[in-house]
Amino acid sequence: MTEWVFSETVFDKSSLGPASLCIENGLIVEVAPLARRGTEIRGAIAPGFLDLQVNGGGGVLLNADPGRISEIGAAHRRFGTVGLMPTVITDAPDVLTAVTDAIIAMKGDVLGLHIEGPHIAMSKRGTHSAAHVRPLDDNTLSAVKRLRDAGVTVLMTLAPEIVGAAAIADLVAMGVIVSLGHSDATADEAEAGFEAGAQAVTHLFNAMSPMTHRAAGLAGVAMERAPFVGLIADGIHVEDRVLKIAVRATQGRIFLVSDAMPTVGGPDQFDLYGATIRVEDGRLVNAEGALAGAHTTMAEGVARLIGLEVPPEDVLHMAITNPATLIGRTDLASLVGRSVEDVIVLNQNWRFIGPLASFVDH
Predict the structure, then answer these.
(1) Which domain holds residue 82?
(2) Residues whose CB falls within 8 Å of the CB of residue 239, separated by 6 or more in sequence, listed in order
(3) How many structural domains are present in the chain?
């Protein structure tokens, strides 16, 4: 069965404009820019969002329930995220081993694994457990080797001043995408991390040495030279005016992340390290009222940035093209070859309203 659909606003790879899509048996086989053919879709069409930092969703925390990764993915798909990297945060060594086993068993059903900690700075650990922060060890290196041998993409957040440039270079040689974060690095230490091959920075401004007028810190160095810059655009982790400054300073290098916890698509509280984390006025907080992860989605970040007058084409680039490029999956920024289940439709306010599959016969 062949069907054509048209929209005035189609995002494909990095361009935004009118186009018609040819759909055969549920797959997009052709994109005809500027053409007007078939049924009109009153909304923007784009490949689904890609989130490289997802701690949980649908009531499931990866660290606690690694066998339920598919439930995390299903929860985020409800909000337009069609590809994600489950993220295991600082924990006991056996937790990383269990998550590694689960990811390998999934045989490619996720984008890879994001290992965030435990090789981070104690002073910038945030909500990560102090009991499990430690230097780079054989347990982590063994898990990384198993993942890479199985063809799994690995993104790893670490502090350059804790791990050291030589170890970063070794990880890069193993095919790991190293991201600097949860770090109190000086500008020189941050520079050394990027020189050693680090490709990204994790959630800019959060849990890192700040930029001041006499010390660039990790935040300043990241904005100047990190190939890719992760950012949580919920208006809580980074204030709106600072979000706009970051967008201007990084000149197209941002990749949006949610840093989502189990409350996305799930109940309003969960347990982390034996303590209850709850949603309070849109914020995830612990018993002391301290911020403990994010209660947001990629869709909300996209709509927020566009509402701050960042051009829609630039924002979609952050939510689709840049994460795809960072992990070496540029095919995921393209419409051709994609299932209509993995292509999304956004309304006039740039809010997710459903997969393209809901608007076509297939």
Answers:
(1) 48-330
(2) none
(3) 2
Active-site residue numbers?
259
Same domain, yes or no: 20 and 76: no
The full DSSP string for 253-308 is -EEEE--B-TTTTS-SEEEETTEEEEEETTEEE-TT--B-SB---HHHHHHHHHHT
The residues facing 103 across adjacent strands are none
**Amino acid code (one letter) for 335:** L
Question: Peptide bond before 118: cis, by omega within 30 degrees of 0?
Answer: yes
Q: Tokens for 320?
A: 């689709």
pLDDT of residue 285: 87
Please tell me whether residues 154 and 184 are part of one structural domain: yes
- Answer yes or no: do 348 and 270 share one domain: no
- pLDDT single digits (tens) 11-50: 999 999 999 999 999 999 999 999 999 999 999 999 999 9
What is the rounded CA–CA span in Å between residue 261 and residue 286? Answer: 13
Whole-number Å distance between alpha carbons of 8 and 12: 13
> Are residues 269 and 346 both part of a single domain?
no
Same structural domain, 11 and 110: no
